[in-house]
Amino acid sequence: MYSYDTVTEAIAELKKRGYNIDFNISFDKLxxxxxxxxxxxxxxxxxEIYRFEGDSNPSDEDVVYAVESxxxxxxxxxxxxxGLYADEISDSMMQKLTIKAH
Length: 102
Prior knowledge:
Strand order of the largest sheet: 3-2-1-6-5-4
Number of domains: 1
Distance between the termini: 15 Å
Radius of gyration: 13 Å
Strand content: 25-35%
Structural class: alpha+beta
Shape: globular
Order of helices and strands: HEEEEEEH
């Protein structure tokens, strides 16, 4: 497992390793910005996870997920705040992300 000091470093290194699609959480699925790809929780696996906790500022808290479609064709990154700044997501997406976070 890799270790990174910052969110920016984690994302840059994951991109070097082929995780080139930037995903956002859209309630019940992952979507890429240009809407070329959409993945439901059953369509992807989380292959790596990195949690960053802000020492003095809660807005610095973030989680970076490396995700891969189950068919292995799509590899991307999801960066998501947690705690008070977390996006609203479906129960199935919450379960998918929570299982891997522990």
